[in-house]
Design a protein that fits this description.
This protein is an alpha/beta fold. It has helices at 42-47, 74-84, 100-111, 133-152, 157-166, 169-173, 178-185, 190-194, 213-222, 238-241, 244-257, and strands spanning 4-8, 11-18, 27-31, 54-58, 93-98, 118-122, 200-205, 226-231. It is 41% helix and 18% strand. Strand 7, helix 9 and strand 8 form a beta-alpha-beta unit. The model has no long low-confidence stretch (mean pLDDT 87).
């Protein structure tokens, strides 16, 4: 796929068309998860090629796209996409997101409802996870320990080693995108989800520990036109690989309903 550079929100970002978009049928817009690029969705987009054209996004700061002009939150990413989308041929648009891409899709559907006709959200994040008392206590102890040690360590390599020790895997690997990650994971999208009125399919892996299926149950309760599917035996990542055929099947059904 050959990238095309587009602009929105003061940022340039790469999009990858697959097939010719038209006003006669749905266009599939693929939005990757945190730390990934359009390539994570490329096999699925190829599998859907005979059903609908696609365009895959590298969000600003990921893949072939340069950094955004500041520490963006998901609303900034959604507004950037909203600025670009009207340049595409008029017609129905279905947003397919994974994890971080779901956060942006929810923002987009809530803030710019005329631009998206349906959402297909895989491993959607954005609600506070439910934790046991022991887990909450452990997290509080770790957080306080980090804050105390941070005050004793000067800024520089020593403090960075401390961040590496106490941070999540995404935090450790975020590098220059760390301010965006911190801003993103702190967002509560429950009020946003209540504003989403378009048809939505929520898909989760049964064994997903990062975005467990109970998030899907809560999202479904917040969104008036949401359906939920839990795919057996899959987790946060294998849902995109081992679960490819199941996702393609359910997405095909959504496409047919939106023609």
């Amino acid at each position: 796929m050959t990238p095309r550079i587009v602009r929105g929100g003061g940022a340039d970002f790469a999009v990858f068309p697959l097939g010719e978009a038209s006003a006669t049928g749905p266009l599939l817009i693929w939005a990757h998860g945190w730390g990934h690029t359009h390539a994570a969705f490329a096999p699925l987009a190829q599998a859907m090629r005979g059903i609908a054209p696609s365009v895959l996004i590298d969000f600003p700061g990921f893949g072939a796209s340069p950094l955004p002009p500041g520490a963006w939150g998901t609303a900034d990413y959604a507004d950037a996409v909203a600025e670009w989308l009207p340049q595409m041929p008029a017609g129905r648009r279905i947003w397919i997101g994974h994890s971080f891409g779901c956060r942006v899709g929810l923002r987009l559907a809530a803030r710019h409802p005329g631009l998206i006709d349906a959402l297909f959200l895989v491993a959607a994040a954005g609600l506070a996870p439910r934790r046991s008392l022991a887990e909450r206590v452990w997290r509080t102890v770790r957080r306080r320990a980090y804050r105390c040690l941070r005050n004793l360590v000067p800024d520089g390599p020593a403090r960075e080693r401390l961040r590496q020790r106490f941070g999540s895997a995404d935090y450790r690997q975020a590098g220059i995108l760390r301010p965006i990650l911190v801003k993103t994971v702190g967002e509560d999208l429950a009020p946003v989800a209540r504003q989403v009125t378009c048809p939505t399919m929520l898909v989760y892996g049964e064994h997903d520990s990062e975005t467990p299926p109970e998030l899907g149950e809560r999202f479904r309760a917040l969104m008036p036109q949401a359906e939920l599917a839990v795919l057996r035996g899959l987790d946060h990542w294998t849902v995109l690989t081992d679960g490819q055929h199941q996702i393609a099947h359910r997405l095909s059904q959504l496409v047919e309903r939106r023609r």
